[in-house]
Automatic annotation (TrEMBL):
Belongs to the truncated hemoglobin family. Group II subfamily. It comes from Leucobacter allii. PROSITE patterns: GLOBIN_FAM_2 (PS01213). Its cofactor is heme. Signal peptide: none annotated. This is Globin. Keywords: Heme, Iron, Metal-binding, Transport. The keyword Transcription does not apply. The keyword Cytoplasm does not apply.
Length: 121
């Protein structure tokens, strides 16, 4: 899928659109260090690119994704999950992937976001 939707350029546009909204979100923004937005952009883009058949830069630099472990220090509540998904769906709307790829991407992020919830207060 990575190559079919435009490779790194498309994934970069998607992740930048996503983080543009996350930076303004009062629940999600505090989870990110202000000085490391570019790092967050790289990590998510590289992870998604690798997941969807692109370069393996993420694993080469950071090892196995271990998503639940990496997110454990953060309070990923149902509200945080819903906000994350709202911003990701908005970014997907903006990037406008072909319908088949868009549906697959949305299905994946829905499942992944549900799996990241680690607090229910």
């Amino acid at each position: 899928m990575w190559a079919q939707v435009g490779g790194t350029e498309t994934f970069d546009r998607l992740v930048r659109a996503f983080y543009r909204e996350v930076r303004q979100d009062p629940v999600l923004a505090p989870m990110y260090p202000d000085a490391d937005w570019e790092g967050a952009i790289w990590r998510l883009r590289a992870f998604l690119e690798q997941y969807w058949g692109g370069p393996t830069s993420y694993s080469e630099e950071r090892g196995h994704p271990r998503l639940r472990m990496r997110h454990a220090p953060f309070a990923v509540t149902p509200d945080a999950r819903d906000r994350w998904l709202r911003h990701m769906h908005g970014a997907l709307d903006e990037v406008a992937l072909p319908p088949m790829h868009d549906a697959a991407f949305r299905e994946y992020v829905e499942r992944a976001a549900l799996a990241m919830v680690n607090r229910f207060e």
